[in-house]
Structure formats: structure tokens, C-alpha cells
Specification:
The protein has 36 helices and 34 strands. By secondary structure, the protein is of the alpha/beta class. It has a domain of 181 residues. The strands form 9 sheets. Strands 14, 15, 16, 17, 18, 19, 20, 21 and 22 form a 9-stranded mixed β-sheet that branches. The chain has a 6-stranded parallel β-sheet with strand order 23-32-31-28-30-29, sandwiched between helices. Helix 6 packs antiparallel against helix 7. The longest helix is centred in the middle third of the chain and has 20 residues. The radius of gyration is 38 Å and the shape is globular. The N and C termini lie far apart (96 Å). InterPro entries: Helicase_ATP-bd, Helicase_C-like, P-loop_NTPase, SNF2-like_sf, SNF2/RAD54-like_C, SNF2_N, SNF2_RAD54_helicase_TF. It comes from Penicillium oxalicum (strain 114-2 / CGMCC 5302) (Penicillium decumbens). This is Helicase C-terminal domain-containing protein.
Length: 1121
């Protein structure tokens, strides 16, 4: 290919893909009918006509028409082609005029592809037909096809050019000799590579700060201090940063101070056969010979690996740039063209005042300068006061409009506003992370002025007061409340926003866990308010900028690993990356992820060209350029998405971080437990209900629970079935109703039923009758209780506390877990008495009546798995009276010779609860423990079990107020006596730092690996000092066992497809429909009815009664510790 001035040529091969173009050279005027031949750059003869492109056509021009420069005779037809003088023809006319000496009129231009003829007629291209091959050379005029010179409305022309460019043959050899085209290798465009968005995110280049390229002295100095200073105390940092943290912080400063120039992500660099470059926009078919550059965002997304210190990195950036002030926006700067923005003094100022005003006006960090002088023993108090007095500001003039509304009223617009430059940083964090940020600031920094606004905070102070703070820390709900009512009243007078935040131009804003910064739910609050405020630098902090964008370490965390595994972390990482390199079937999920990214890129960061207005001639449609599927239906990932992410994301690859820090090893294993009699019975009753429904509905129609119309009810049923793996005491379906329904159906349809269906119903009926014969099961169902077994319960009170009155004489005694807690509490409240069991019988009667009333108040068919059903007191009860004080730390305890010392807790009816209690007893003295649950009922039973043992714990649940969650989390981190944290899995996905825990138990297996990994990384992160052991509890041969096995077999694409529900996976849905009954053994309650503790534990001696300060300890008979 060759290029001439104002003309660009390329080789086009119909049916092939790829593209190449080139640069410019002088052109020879075309005047003669037959231009002279000249030598091409490759030694071949070519024509100095407006650059041809070689096009492969369905018509064999080599046998019908001559090449442009000479006459050829093939058969009886002679066709002559002459070149018209372009100087004499009208603009837009065809360059070539075809003449035939045959009697038939051969309209050769009509034989050309329609797109080429259309583009020729408008002067966009010129074409040349090869003499002996079915190829066409086309020369493109880049002056006509560039974005600057082409109207956006020229859709037909751009569509034609796009169709030509999609079939470019780019080989230099083929350009010289078209006969080599079949042997030439097509150059695939970079945008045809189907790399998954997840893979791109995990293979972005590591941050590489270059302080030598930064022009601003103070920013360059800040970067050098972050990178090279061994001690960072001069910056106000108490903590030494890891190398990757230094690089990330320095990169953030670099992007703030001097955003790089990046190639327009819509334009793809291409190369012509002679090696010269051009740039092509594939979507809108624009061609240019010059690079189009845009500035990267003044900020971006800090997306370092979970648990690797993103908060500390942000604090390091704030400390390094402390005292830096934003620059006055260019549009508000005083220039000769805008003299009205120039501030003129009323009188000549002193040299000090003028120097201070100039320093402020040019955003010189005078606070940093004077701090450095003070370290040298030099103090400039007058200068500091002068700088504080001459605070830099600029005026935003009122918006002027040419248009008038009704009654000659202008459209309401904001008045002129003066904005002052401010060196502070606003940080917006989720409510539950406010305490975390306060603790991190206190731990890692010194000397920072911080103002904190939580959910309960009142009005903001004045703008002048806010200017004195380095950090203004907001809880998210408090920040959104600052937005107030609608700002622009379109039908009335303009309402000025009165928040003092709008009076300042802040240095930066940081949004922690910012993946939801532009979510639909917060669009009218957070984004609206952020759009009204003035920031120079903007950052989002999130290790998962979108639901499907997370680090490879998250995938690895959910894998089962134990001490015998020998695979290196590098090998595991490489294998995980390769397994998800392609998009696969996850296109729908990727589209959602890309839309979430768009909100961050466009609405928050304002990155151009994506943030260009639709009214702008240079508007860039994000969905058009970034979508993972082209108009031809082919999978692809444009270079635009990788280029955009690379310019925004600050993130190190996992192998780099792993080499620079040490985090103790993670061990993740599945623990298989044998279900108890009641576990099996509950699960089988659910399976019987599913079987009755499937068989009696003949597996079709609206009555069939697996019918798509019943998906919501089916999901609830499966959730309840999974809950039964821990414990089920609900009353959703009556076994008697199922028996009657199944019996009636078999009586009418037995002859038409398959043997398998008959056997299944008969087996289910036997199981249901077993349940109805079980007195303990009936009591569990009636009173919504979980059973515990107690040895040596005081004989005179057994009948009053036994769950099953018929078993009051049996040993061990079966008691409901709520009953057992009430018995403990009664004895503990009366420990000061010589006989604390006085009144225990009456307490047992009262407790049973309370449980029966609770049963009557509970709707008989209400599903137990409903949000907010956690009715357990989340904090262990105490007997402290609010009117008394207990500073002496003295307690009443059970006497050593009391008969109650022999009473012991020996078992529970739930295999999983027993296992958890065993582990807590074993580990609580040396390790802190997190227990993740996925439904509130399980949390209630676990909490009751922990209180039976007298274990100090706290609950982190969605049903608690944010303030209480924060308090409990702080206690777990800091208090030595709080050993266990019960955590709602839905609250454990982002941001929480709980490295104090080294043992994690997952009550029920989690379907989504990503959710499991997010929970695990709450503890396995920087700051962890011990190996982390994760155990997922699974009942053997149950649905949850089969679910976990299926999850291991699934590909990444299948997992993404079924991310929301396991029923979205066809194989898993089939497993549910074919799930067999669990064997029941002897079909009656026997030794498997209970899961026994490894060691019996005391029942009445695990709790003490605090002694108030005003109680006389000299009285006889008082026992205290």
C-alpha cells in the first residue's frame, strides 16, 4: 500500500477480516487520460492516481475490463477506461469514466460493490480494478473520513466505509501481488479477541510510578517520599508501607498531579503495508492520520487485592499531599479574554500580602513549605497569617441563556457563586466501616485534623470551619442526607443549595466500597450531591468494582486446600486465570458489569470521551464501544475496555503482592457429618412433599412446583430444605395432608403409575408416619424448638421441664433449647440463695406456657426463613440492674457441693450444632472464631447453644442497627473475653477487617464461590498473624452434599450462569428433582436421635451472678469470686 497527500489507501478483500492503513505523501495531479506509470515503494509499477485499494469482487474483472491504464481485449468485448480530469469534473462525480466499444452498454461501475460506488460518488474513496484478479484497490481520503470533517449524520456513508474496512487484506505482499492473497495470513484485529472482563481486570499492568516525569515540584517530591523514604514520619505516617503499597500510593499521586495522555480508546492503531500508521474507529468508521488524545481521569479506582491495605494506601496519599490545594479550573481563570474574572485590589498591597495572594492563587502548598521550615527551627507566623487571610477563590458566573420562557421570564438558573479552594479530602464510607476508618486513622497517622459525621450527626459547620480539616469523614447515609430536597426547581424560583460543602473546592473525594457509588438506588442522593460539589481529584476504593470484577485470589479462597496440598500459589493463580480467560456463556453478566462500570466512569469520574455530552459532536456511546458482542454476532473484547481500565485502575497482580508480603496460609476444607434421626426426618419430609407434588401433578402444569411459574415458591422450598440441614422446626406442610393426598392418588391411578413412582410414594408415606409416631418430633414441630439432652437434671423438676412429657423419666432428659436457657437463667438469678432451685417448678410451667403461646401466635404455614425472623437477643443477657454499679468484678457462683454441679449437657438433636459447640469449647481459649450463617433461624439456635455453654459472643446481623453492629464488631476485635462472632453472610461481603479471627465455620455450604471467598477474606488478610482454618459443615449424602459436589464440577461459565440460584443450573435442577430419601435405620428413635458432645459439660455451673457495689460482703453465707 502507498499513501498520497490527502489520500489514504488500503487493501480490501471481500470475505476477509482485518485492517491496515497508512500516512500521507505528495500526489501527482491527474490530468492526462492515461497517467504515466511510476515505481512503487516495493519495486512494482503502479499508477499515480488517487490511491487505489485492492478489492476482491464476485465479478471477475480480469476477464471483462482492463486495468485503469491500458486496453485489454478478452473475447469479443473491448472496454476502454479513461481517467477524467478531476479539476474539470463536478465535486462528488465519479472519478473514472467507463466506455465500451461493444454494441452492448456494459455499465461497469454497477459491477462494483455498492458501498464502493456510494463512497466514490461522495469523494470519500477512489477505486482501481486489478487487471487479472478479482481484487479492487481503493484509495481513501482521510480528510473526508476523519471525525472532525465528517458529519455524524452521514450514516449511510459511514456504514459503507465500515463494511469495506471490515474486509481489509493488510498483507504488504498481497498488495504487490494480489495472487498471493490466498496464501497471505490475515492480521486479526485486536478487538476480535474474546477475553473475559474478569481476565482483563486480573491481568492489568502493575502500577509503575515515574516521579521524574512529573513537572510539579511538590507532587514529584510527594511521590519520591512515598517511594524512597525509609521513614515516613515526616509525612505523618506511623506505619511502614509495603513496597506495593508505596507504588500504589505514588501512582495515585502521579495520576492526580499529572494525568497521562491516552489514545482515544475508540481509535485502534493500524499499519499500512509500507509500515506507516493510521487510526481507525471501527464502530463509527472514522479514519484519521493523527492521534486523538484524551487526558486520563484525575483519580481512578483503587482496586488492590482484598485485605491488602487499601485504606492505608489512601491515608498515605492524603499524608503525602497534605497542604496541597486544587488549582482554579481553567474556565474560571482570569485571562486577557476574560478580564471580568480578574480580581482588582482597591489599593496597592504590601509585598507580603501580594506574595501570599499569589501563592494562594497559584495553588502553592504553603502549609507544607512552612512545616518544612519549622522542622529546621524557622518560623514565619506573619507569612502564615497572610496566606490564611488571602484565601484563594474564584467565581462561577451565572449561566447565561439566549432563550426566554413564558411571559418573557428566563429559565431559572443559579446565581453567581464564589468558591474557595480547600486542601481537605472528603471520604464517604458505608455506615458499618466508619469505625474502621477512624481506627485506621488513629493507628497509622498522626497530626491529621479529622472531622467525623456519623448517621446521628447534626448540621455541618461553616465552610470556613471545614477548611481547617485535612479529612472530613462521612457515613454514607449522613452524606446523602446533606443533599436535602431537589436542588433545581424547574417550575419556580431557583433554590440555592445551602450546604457549606458547596462553598469549597475540595482537593479530593474518596468513596470507599465505591462499586455502588452510582447504583440505581443512590443516584438521586449521592451522585446528585457529588455532582453539585467541586473536586479536583476523585477516587473509588473497591477490590470488586462490579459484581463480576474481583481478584483471582477470591476464586482461590473458596477452593478446598489443606496442609497436604503442594501446588504453589503461582501455579494455582495461573490455572485459575486460564480457566476464565474466555467470556464463555457469561455475556449477560458481563453486560451488567460493564453497565456498572459505566456509572463509575461516566457519572462519578467524568472520564472523557465517555462522559462527553450527547449534544457534543464527539459523543462516545459506552455501550456501543465496550459491548462484548459485535454487530456481526461475534464475540470480541475491544481494546477500548482494556485501555480504559488500565488508565483508571490501580492494582497489583496477585503474584506481585504475594512476593512482597506474608499472610499466613489458608486451609479450607469440608467437614462431613452424619445426620441425626431428626435431621434425616426433617429432610425426608421435605423430599416427600416434593415427590407428592411431582407425581400427583404428573410433572406438568401450573400445579407442578418445578413449573417456571412456580419458581418463587420452589426457591423458598429449596431454601427451607437446605435449612433443614441444620435444623427445621417449622410447620409448613402437614405430614398427614401429604399422606392423604398420596394415598388418594395411588388408589385412583396406581395402574398407570410407574413402579418407581409407586415405590417413592410408599416410602414417603412410611417416613411421614414415622414422624407422626415420634412424640419428640411432634413437640419440636408444635413448640418450634430444637432439642438438647441433659443428664442428672434434678428429679423433682424433670416433669416440668421435659419437652416430651412421656419421656420425663428417660436419661438423658430431652429439653427444648429455649427451655434449657430459661432453666439456666432462673438458677443464675437465685445463686445468692442457699437453694437456687426454689421455684424452679413454677418457672418450668411458665416457660412451657410461653412456648405454647408463641406457637399459637405463629401462623401455621408461615415459612420460617423470613428476613427479620431473628428473635434471639443478640447480646448475652446479664443480670445487671441499670440502677446499680458493678466495678468490683465480684460474682456469686454455684457452690462446689451443690447437687446441681452434677447436671450436664451431653448432646443436641442437631449434628451441626453439636459439632460447632465441640469446636468452640476446644478453641475458644486460644483462638477467636467467626461462624457464618445464611438464615436467621440457624443464628438463633447457635446463639442459644453458645449461651448454654456460657461463651461470650456477639452477633453481626442485618436486623441490628448499624451503631449496634459497629459496637459488637469492636468488642469482638478488642475484648479478650468475646471469643465468637456470629455473622450474617450477607453482611460479610465487603470492607470488613476481622483479622483477629483465625477460625471460620460456615454453617451451610455456599452455592456461589465468590460469596464464600468474600466471607473468608474478612479474616485472611493483612494483619492476620495465624494460619486461617475454614470449615464448611455438610451433612453426608444430603442435597447440600450433592450441591457442593456439583459446584466443584462446574466450569466458571456455568457458575456465572447460575450465580443467583442453583436452580439456574440444569444439572443441579435435575439433582433436586431426583434427590432420594435418606435411610432412616430402624425407622424409630434410637441412639442416632442425638449428636453427643465429645465431653459432657456442666449445665448449671456455667453462669455467675454479678454482685453490685453496694452489697455488704460481710453477711454470712455469701459465696463470691
Amino acid at each position: 500500500m502507498r499513501i498520497y497527500e490527502r489520500d489514504l489507501y488500503m487493501k480490501y478483500s471481500e470475505g476477509r477480516h482485518g485492517q491496515e492503513l497508512d500516512d500521507v505523501r505528495p500526489i501527482v495531479d491527474i490530468v492526462d487520460p492515461v497517467p504515466p506509470a511510476t515505481s512503487s515503494p516495493h519495486g512494482q509499477k503502479s499508477l499515480d492516481v488517487n490511491a487505489p485499494i485492492l478489492v476482491k469482487s464476485d465479478h471477475d474483472f480480469g476477464h471483462q475490463v482492463p486495468a485503469i491504464s491500458y486496453l485489454s481485449t478478452m473475447g469479443s468485448n473491448e472496454v476502454e477506461v479513461t481517467v477524467k480530469d478531476p479539476l474539470s469534473k463536478p465535486h462528488g462525480a465519479d472519478l473514472l469514466q467507463w466506455k465500451s466499444s461493444d454494441r452492448r452498454d456494459l455499465n461497469l461501475p454497477s459491477l462494483l460493490p455498492v458501498g464502493i460506488s456510494l463512497l466514490e460518488s461522495h469523494g470519500w474513496i477512489q477505486s482501481e480494478v486489478s487487471n487479472c484478479t478479482n481484487y479492487i484497490r481503493v484509495y481513501v481520503n482521510p480528510m473526508m473520513t476523519s471525525r472532525r470533517n465528517t458529519q455524524r449524520s452521514s450514516t449511510r456513508l459511514r456504514a459503507a466505509l465500515r463494511s469495506i474496512m471490515a474486509k481489509i487484506e493488510s498483507s504488504p505482499e498481497t498488495w504487490i501481488n494480489p495472487r498471493l492473497s490466498e496464501k497471505a495470513e490475515d492480521l486479526q484485529s485486536v478487538d476480535t479477541v474474546d477475553e473475559s472482563l474478569w481476565y482483563i481486570f486480573n491481568t492489568l499492568k502493575d502500577p509503575c510510578p515515574r516521579p521524574g516525569e512529573i513537572k510539579d515540584y511538590w507532587s514529584r517530591r510527594a511521590m519520591e517520599q512515598l517511594l524512597f523514604n525509609d521513614e515516613l514520619s515526616e509525612l505523618g505516617l506511623r506505619t511502614t508501607l509495603y513496597p506495593y503499597q508505596r507504588r500504589s500510593a505514588a501512582t495515585m499521586v502521579q495520576r492526580e498531579a499529572q494525568p497521562s495522555q491516552m489514545l482515544d480508546p475508540r481509535m485502534q492503531p493500524c499499519q499500512s503495508p509500507d509500515g506507516r500508521k493510521y487510526w481507525y474507529d471501527r464502530e463509527d468508521a472514522y479514519i484519521t492520520l493523527n492521534k486523538v488524545l484524551y487526558s486520563e481521569a484525575c483519580g481512578g479506582i483503587l482496586a488492590e487485592t482484598m485485605g491488602c491495605g487499601k485504606t492505608l494506601i489512601c491515608l498515605a496519599v492524603i499524608c503525602a499531599t497534605r497542604g496541597h490545594t486544587p488549582k482554579i479550573p481553567i474556565e474560571y481563570m482570569s485571562t486577557p479574554e476574560k478580564p471580568d474574572l480578574t480580581y482588582v485590589r482597591e489599593s496597592t498591597g504590601s509585598l507580603l500580602d501580594m506574595a501570599a495572594a499569589a501563592a494562594q492563587r497559584h495553588s502553592e502548598p504553603w502549609r507544607t513549605f512552612f512545616r518544612d521550615r519549622e522542622r529546621e527551627g524557622l518560623y514565619f507566623e506573619r507569612c502564615k497569617r497572610a496566606c490564611e487571610y488571602h484565601q484563594a477563590s474564584y467565581e462561577i458566573p451565572p449561566h447565561r441563556t439566549r432563550y426566554q420562557g413564558r411571559q418573557n421570564q428566563s429559565f431559572p438558573r443559579p446565581p453567581a457563586k464564589r468558591v474557595f479552594l480547600c486542601a481537605g479530602t472528603i471520604i464517604i464510607v458505608p455506615n458499618n466501616l466508619l469505625d474502621h476508618w477512624q481506627r485506621e486513622i488513629k493507628t497509622h497517622t498522626e497530626g491529621l485534623n479529622v472531622f467525623v459525621f456519623d448517621q446521628r450527626s447534626g448540621d455541618l459547620p461553616s465552610a470556613e470551619h471545614l477548611m481547617s480539616y485535612d479529612i472530613v469523614l462521612f457515613a454514607k447515609t449522613r452524606f446523602e442526607r446533606e443533599a436535602g430536597e431537589s436542588i433545581n426547581n424547574r417550575r419556580g424560583r431557583f433554590v440555592q443549595m445551602d450546604s457549606p460543602l458547596t462553598e469549597l473546592h475540595w482537593l479530593r473525594v474518596i468513596v470507599d466500597e465505591g462499586h455502588n457509588v452510582a447504583g440505581q438506588g443512590s443516584r438521586t442522593n449521592m451522585i446528585h450531591l457529588l455532582s453539585q460539589l467541586h473536586f479536583e481529584r476523585r477516587w473509588v476504593i473497591s477490590g470488586t468494582p462490579s459484581a463480576g470484577l474481583y481478584g483471582v485470589e477470591v476464586s482461590l479462597a473458596s477452593r478446598e486446600l489443606n496442609a497436604s496440598d503442594t501446588d504453589s500459589a503461582t501455579d494455582l493463580t495461573a490455572a485459575a486465570l486460564q480457566s476464565r480467560r474466555k467470556t464463555g456463556n457469561a455475556v449477560t453478566n458481563e453486560l451488567k458489569d460493564l453497565d456498572r462500570l459505566r456509572r463509575i466512569v461516566v457519572e462519578f469520574l467524568g472520564l472523557k470521551p465517555w462522559a462527553n455530552s450527547r449534544a457534543d459532536d464527539d459523543y462516545a456511546d459506552w455501550s456501543k464501544y465496550i459491548k462484548p458482542i459485535g454487530e456481526d454476532g461475534r464475540r470480541r473484547k475491544t481494546a477500548a475496555i482494556r485501555a480504559t481500565l488500565q488508565g483508571l485502575v490501580v492494582r497489583h497482580q496477585l503474584n506481585v503482592v504475594s512476593q512482597e508480603i506474608y499472610i499466613p496460609k489458608l486451609y479450607n476444607e469440608v467437614v462431613y457429618l452424619e445426620p441425626t434421626f431428626h435431621d434425616r426426618l426433617s429432610i425426608n419430609l421435605f423430599l416427600f412433599g416434593l415427590a407428592v407434588n411431582a407425581i400427583t401433578s404428573e410433572r406438568q402444569g401450573p400445579d407442578y412446583i418445578f413449573d417456571p411459574r412456580n419458581r418463587k415458591h420452589l426457591n423458598q422450598t429449596i431454601n427451607n430444605l437446605r435449612q433443614a440441614g441444620f435444623w427445621w422446626a417449622g410447620s409448613e406442610v402437614s405430614p398427614q395432608d401429604s399422606i392423604e393426598h398420596a394415598t388418594r392418588y395411588m388408589d385412583k391411578n396406581r395402574e398407570s403409575m410407574t413402579a418407581e413412582d409407586v415405590d417413592q410414594l410408599i416410602r414417603g408415606i412410611e417416613i411421614a408416619r414415622t414422624a407422626m409416631r415420634s412424640s419428640s418430633w411432634r413437640e419440636f414441630k408444635r413448640l418450634h424448638e430444637l432439642g438438647v439432652y441433659i443428664n442428672n437434671f434434678p428429679s423433682e423438676y424433670r416433669a416440668y421441664w421435659s419437652l416430651d412429657q412421656s419421656g420425663a423419666d428417660q436419661e438423658p432428659l430431652l429439653v427444648g433449647i429455649t427451655q434449657a436457657r430459661r432453666a439456666q437463667q432462673f438458677v443464675a438469678r437465685h445463686l445468692k440463695l442457699s437453694d437456687p432451685t426454689q421455684g424452679l417448678a413454677g418457672a418450668g410451667i411458665t416457660t412451657r406456657h410461653d412456648l405454647e403461646r408463641r406457637d399459637q401466635q405463629t401462623p401455621p404455614k408461615a415459612p420460617a426463613s423470613t428476613p427479620g425472623s431473628l428473635h434471639h437477643n443478640p447480646k448475652p443477657q446479664t443480670n445487671k440492674s441499670p440502677a446499680k454499679t458493678f466495678t468490683r468484678n465480684l460474682f456469686y457462683s454455684l457452690p462446689a457441693n451443690s447437687p446441681l454441679q452434677k447436671t450436664q449437657l451431653v448432646a443436641t438433636a442437631s449434628a451441626k450444632l453439636t459439632y460447632l459447640l465441640n469446636k468452640v469449647l476446644q478453641l475458644q481459649d486460644t483462638e477467636k472464631i467467626i461462624i457464618f450463617y445464611d438464615n436467621n433461624n440457624s443464628a438463633f439456635w447457635i446463639a442459644e447453644g453458645l449461651e448454654l455453654l456460657g461463651v461470650e459472643f456477639r452477633i453481626y446481623a442485618s436486623t441490628l442497627k448499624p451503631e449496634l453492629r459497629t459496637e459488637y464488631l469492636k468488642l469482638f476485635r478488642e475484648a479478650e473475653d468475646v471469643r465468637v462472632l456470629l455473622m450474617d453472610l450477607r453482611q460479610a461481603s465487603h470492607g470488613l477487617h476481622i483479622a483477629q479471627a483465625s477460625r471460620i465455620f460456615i454453617v451451610n455450604p455456599i452455592w456461589q464461590p465468590n460469596v464464600e471467598s468474600q466471607a473468608i477474606k474478612r479474616a485472611h488478610r493483612i494483619g492476620q498473624k495465624n494460619p486461617v482454618y475454614v470449615e464448611t459443615l455438610v451433612l453426608r449424602d444430603t442435597l447440600e452434599d450433592h450441591m457442593l459436589k456439583r459446584r466443584r464440577e462446574m466450569s466458571e461459565a456455568e457458575i456465572q450462569h447460575a450465580e443467583k440460584s442453583l436452580l439456574d443450573d440444569g444439572t443441579m435442577s435435575d439433582i433436586v428433582q431426583r434427590e432420594p430419601f435418606l435411610p432412616m435405620g430402624q425407622e424409630e428413635e434410637d441412639d442416632t436421635a442425638a449428636a453427643f458432645l465429645d465431653h459432657p459439660v456442666g449445665f448449671f455451673n456455667r453462669h455467675r451472678l454479678p454482685i453490685p457495689d453496694d452489697e455488704d460482703l460481710t453477711l454470712p453465707g455469701i459465696r463470691y469470686l
